[in-house]
Amino acid sequence: MATVLVTGASGMIGMYLTSSLLQKKHKVFAVDSRPNEFVGTNPEYSFVQCDITDKGVIENILSANRIDTLVHLACSVDNDIDSLITDDVLKTSKITDKYLYDAAVKAGVTNIVLLSTTQVYGMQKGREPVRETVPEKGSTYYSDLKLTSEKFLMKAVKKADTIPVIARVAPVYTAEYTQNLKDRVYDAKEDVAYIIREGENGFSFCCVFNLVDFINAIISIPNVRYEGVYNIADTKIITSKEILDYEREHHRIGAVIQKTPPVSLVPLSKARAKSDYRYFDISMALANWNIDNTKAQRISTFRWSLKNTK
């Protein structure tokens, strides 16, 4: 069994990952600025409440324990940072980048898994699947934050034996957490859900359990050098109609209006899109960019979708 350090352990993704790790009998060290329901419930779970910038505390955990895998979930929007990326958020992430990976390498950590985002690819032209080889063209504060984290990680492991794994994750969802889904079919200004044509336009998302399965697979095969950048997303896009039907089924959405298709893929509000992670511009509604997870499927099955997520 492995020993895993999870940052951002009290966030949504951190909680699902911790539950899975403990079920698989791994030993978990966890850090977060707020406690969670696992504290004091399992002898294999050690929790330290601290800020992610508390360098001395986290360095001590790394040096005092034989950590096999560091899973860095902190400083990530879908792990409970507010959707508005402020200067303070950027500063916190950069402070963390400057010490965390070096400390993990120095402590002899086998794997480092960094939670990044598919937002780093930015807007695409055409309908080709978005693969890991596509140039990074992200123009938001969040994509800048994560690209900076990726660069610091790769620099830290360049001459080390530590294996870097960068998980570029599409917006996540669970059966209960569907905010990222609703953002694609809900007009907050008009306070109403909408559909374009028959709702056949779709988007790439990631069921949290697909991400958890992927991280578990990395942890379970430490002697195999699966390293580098991986797209983590459901195998199929989710259409607007599927989102609306799912939310209706769970009584979480009301009336739906028909909207005119956008004329072109020209953002209506670049300024808002730059700082607000969850802002969705309707001009992008028909882009249908498919995040390709073929590379990651060599490691994990990606069996979860909106249809079988409980």
Brief summary of the model shown:
The protein is built from 9 helices and 14 strands. It has about 300 residues and is α/β, with parallel strands linked by helices. The protein is globular, with a radius of gyration of 19 Å.
Architecture overview:
This protein is an alpha/beta fold and 310 residues long. It has two domains: 3-172 and 205-235 and 290-298, NAD(P)-binding Rossmann-like Domain (Rossmann fold), CATH 3.40.50.720; 179-201 and 237-284, no CATH class. The protein is 29% helix and 19% strand. The chain has helices at 12-23, 55-64, 87-97, 100-106, 141-157, 179-182, 208-220, 240-249, 270-275, and strands at 3-7, 27-32, 45-49, 69-72, 111-117, 163-169, 172-173, 186-187, 192-196, 202-203, 206-207, 228-232, 238-239, 256-259. The strands form four sheets. It has a seven-stranded parallel beta sheet, sandwiched between helices. α1 (12-23) crosses α7 (208-220) and α3 (87-97) runs parallel beside α5 (141-157). The longest helix is centred in the middle third of the chain and has 17 residues, at 141-157. It starts with a strand and ends in a 35-residue tail after the last helix.
